[in-house]
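Expect sequence, tokenised fold; for instance:
***
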Amino acid sequence: MMVEHTARQPDPPVVAVPWSVIPDYHCFGCSPHNESGLRLSFTPHEDGLQARFRLDRSFESYPGVVHGGLTGVICDEVMGNLIVLARQVPAFTVSQRTRFLTPLLIDREYRCVATLTGDGGEEPIRAAADIIDADGAVCASSTATYQPFTLADARHQLSLGDDEVALLSHALSTADALPPNGVRHVHH
């Protein structure tokens, strides 16, 4: 009797966001220091960037259903971090449109996959994201436009000290960035 063994592909490495150089950053979407946040972490995806998540009842709207606003937050978070990692520049969300196909359910596994849409050099920057369930069905889609900014220009809007601006600037310029179009070609 012959038994076939298939090797499990290792999980992709978690991508460090530049904000993590600030020891207590509190981003609602991705900070591990924000007790009430989503605590998303990111991994490369062949189309851009992804985050896997499962939300509990503290994020509930109707019984058993994730609050719809959080769907947009998750998409915005993954798209925004894709821009930071692919273009090595932070960007503010200018507009976002989210289409809800099916509700997200509490305590279910989902992943959000973000891609950059456009040729890679235009401003504002455009991105898209899909939230996909464990069966591969798209539950929500979002598109957004982002305006890049420099830390120096937006400093008056951000609560950052000189040392934090220097840390973030260095992290942005030296990060293990994704390609400018956000797409890594996977070789088989």
Observations:
- The longest helix spans residues 68-87.
- The helical segments are 68-87, 151-154, 162-174.
- The two ends are 30 Å apart (CA to CA).
- The mean pLDDT is 86.
